[in-house]
């Protein structure tokens, strides 16, 4: 063999880096060079091969990222938020549409909300339907001291359960905010206040169109459009994502070197920095060019390879090359970016979902119920609200209805059992001057109304509800009033300042009597007195009634009743010497009330006190 012989051709081909030439190992890219292997690996779709973007699934290809994000950045497909607590401003969670906005079930509370703001809302529900309910609570257990709705708020004027709606349009802002600080943002507007310690930027620009520019610079008088300076750090950085977060994709360091890639750590090669170690040796691998587009051998240069791993996982995103794994997990292990939890049911222990912060802890809107809570516990609450502030007009549960036939609060005790511990509404006040239940009509209506199909309309007890109490007062279905005590009134007797009041006691009777009073005069010793026809309609004058007379004159007179009828009675009077009297007189008529003629000292059944054990609520 002749050494150091410099031939013009080799097998008829010239040496060089272009098509048809014998390739030279001179660090320059050989055009159309089809290599058999790349770093010892063939191209293909099987395990152990360099993946090809040809529409087939690459077995066991574990992509490092999906759309630039690692496995740890995603939630698993079967995940839920049980036991989590979210804190922020505004509304914590808004659900809209469907039959029920939110359904919660727990052994203690179906739905629990706390509003800690000055005018906060623990739970807010709204329904726009004519027969819907803003907040609906159901305590389904057939026994125990349970509650349909219970609300809580720690605000001094807050609401445990409340309801609202979003507007169909709003006010948009071309520019929002401003800064007067010499160290603030030239074009980044948050508000007019000067705030120190924020992420600093000379200019922040944002454009939502497909062709616009977030930040544009212009050298109006021949200067530089955009200039970059840095003492020792990078001069330019570009991120994928929303400011100030995102993933570094491009940077120019202080020495002028350009870097790109998924983390901005891949050097951009050019005529000034290529050579040994550049790895740019072959133009083709098994007939495929290297690149980031569909049909290329993918390059790990920080850019998203279309239809490969970062863009597709088990066939998602409708592409050709489909990665089989992402950090060792299939696509079924992840939730999609647009996922929500509508219609899901989570089961566990403790509190299912905790929302804290903002003005409204939880907002639900549905065609039937805005917020629905259910509890199967014997002492549970369907919806629980707690106003923990010790001052202010706050409400544990607040309900509002705008309908002309609606109810601010609607509560039903559905169990059809005859027990003394049942009530549609139970109200309790622990102070010495408060009211267990208070009704207030803001205009001229009734403060509190009572209806009963066949039972007593009103009952009043002395003692604690529902045990160790004695019935003292009731009104039956016919309107009859019964009281265990005297019938009294009080009148002011202490002067104009009202410093003293006295009790007047009403008379009672063994039978249902009614009475009327009047005056008349004798003419020729006789008088016929017509009974007031209106009074006559309230009593039964066809049965025995009584007339009492009192003479009004200056001489002794004998008065006596000579006849009685349902319409009148006759009176005669004479002096002591037997002469007809001309005297005037007063009379009093006592008659049986109509419909109660046969009643006399009827027996009243007073139920014995009920003995139950109950836990005092907070």
Detailed description of the structure:
Among the domains are: 236-267, no CATH class; 452-510 and 603-613, no CATH class; 513-592, Immunoglobulin-like (Sandwich), CATH 2.60.40. A hairpin with a 5-residue loop joins strand 23 and strand 24. The protein has one helix and 33 strands. With 618 residues, it is an all-beta fold.
Tags for this entry?
618 residues, mainly beta, Immunoglobulin-like, four-stranded mixed sheet, rod-shaped
Task: Give the helix/strand class.
Answer: mainly beta
Distance, first to last CA: 104 Å
Helix tally?
1
Which sequence of strands runs across the widest sheet?
1-15-16-17
- Average the pLDDT over all residues and give the rounded result: 79
Q: Please compute the radius of gyration using only Cα atoms.
A: 46 Å
CATH class of the domain at 513-592: Mainly Beta
């Amino acid at each position: 063999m002749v050494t150091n012989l410099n031939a013009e051709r080799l097998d008829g081909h010239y040496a060089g880096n272009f098509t048809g030439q014998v390739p030279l190992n001179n660090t320059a890219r050989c055009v159309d060079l089809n290599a058999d292997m790349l770093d010892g690996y063939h191209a293909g779709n099987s395990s152990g091969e360099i993946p090809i973007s040809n529409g087939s699934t690459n077995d066991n290809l574990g992509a490092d990222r999906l759309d630039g994000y690692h496995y740890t950045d995603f939630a698993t497909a079967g995940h839920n938020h049980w036991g989590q607590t979210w804190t922020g401003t505004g509304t914590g969670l808004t659900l809209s549409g469907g039959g029920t906005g939110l359904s919660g079930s727990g052994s203690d509370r179906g739905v629990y909300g706390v509003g800690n703001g000055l005018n906060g809302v623990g739970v807010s529900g709204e329904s726009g339907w004519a027969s819907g309910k803003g907040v609906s609570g159901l305590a389904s257990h057939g026994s125990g001291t349970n509650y349909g709705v219970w609300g809580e708020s720690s605000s001094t004027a807050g609401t445990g359960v409340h309801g609202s709606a979003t507007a169909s349009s709003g006010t948009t802002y071309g520019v929002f905010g401003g800064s007067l600080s010499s160290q603030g943002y030239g074009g980044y507007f948050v508000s007019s206040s000067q705030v120190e310690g924020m992420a600093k930027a000379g200019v922040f620009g944002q454009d939502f169109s497909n062709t616009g520019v977030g930040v544009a610079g212009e050298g109006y008088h021949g200067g530089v459009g955009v200039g970059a300076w840095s003492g020792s750090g990078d001069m330019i950085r570009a991120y994928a994502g929303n400011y100030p977060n995102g993933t570094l994709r491009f940077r120019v360091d202080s020495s002028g070197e350009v870097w790109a890639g998924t983390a901005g750590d891949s050097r951009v090669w050019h005529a000034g920095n290529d050579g040994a170690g550049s790895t740019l040796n072959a133009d083709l691998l098994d007939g495929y060019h290297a690149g980031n587009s569909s049909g290329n051998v993918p390059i790990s240069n920080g850019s998203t390879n279309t239809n490969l791993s970062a863009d597709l996982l088990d066939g998602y995103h409708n592409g050709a090359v489909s990665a089989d794994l992402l950090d060792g997990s299939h696509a079924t292990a992840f939730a999609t970016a647009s996922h929500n939890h509508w219609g899901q049911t989570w089961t566990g222990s403790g509190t299912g979902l905790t929302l804290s912060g903002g003005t409204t802890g939880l907002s639900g809107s549905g065609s039937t119920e805005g917020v629905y809570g259910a509890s199967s516990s014997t002492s549970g609450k369907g919806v629980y609200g707690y106003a923990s502030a010790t001052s202010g007009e706050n409400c544990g549960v607040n309900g509002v209805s705008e309908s002309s036939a609606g109810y601010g609060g609607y509560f039903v005790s559905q169990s059809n059992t005859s027990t003394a511990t049942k009530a549609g509404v139970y109200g309790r006040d622990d102070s010495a001057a408060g009211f267990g239940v208070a009704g207030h009509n803001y205009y001229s209506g009734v403060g509190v109304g009572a209806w009963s199909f066949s039972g007593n309309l009103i009952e009043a007890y002395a003692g604690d509800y529902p045990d160790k109490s004695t019935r003292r007062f009731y009104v039956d279905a016919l309107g009859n009033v019964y009281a265990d005590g005297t019938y009294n009134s009080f009148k002011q007797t202490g002067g104009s300042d009202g410093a003293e009041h006295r009790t007047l006691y009403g008379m009672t009777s063994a039978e249902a009597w009614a009475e009327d009073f009047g005056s008349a005069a004798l003419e020729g010793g006789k008088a016929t007195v017509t009974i007031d026809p209106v009074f006559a309609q309230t009593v039964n004058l066809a049965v025995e009634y009584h007339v009492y007379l009192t003479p009004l004159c200056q001489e002794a007179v004998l008065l006596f009743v000579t006849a009685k009828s349902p319409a009148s009675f006759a009176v005669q009077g004479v002096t002591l010497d037997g002469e007809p009297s001309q005297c005037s007189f007063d009379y009093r008529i006592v008659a049986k009330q109509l419909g109660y003629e046969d009643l006399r000292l009827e027996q009243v059944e007073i139920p014995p006190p009920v003995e139950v054990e109950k836990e005092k609520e907070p």
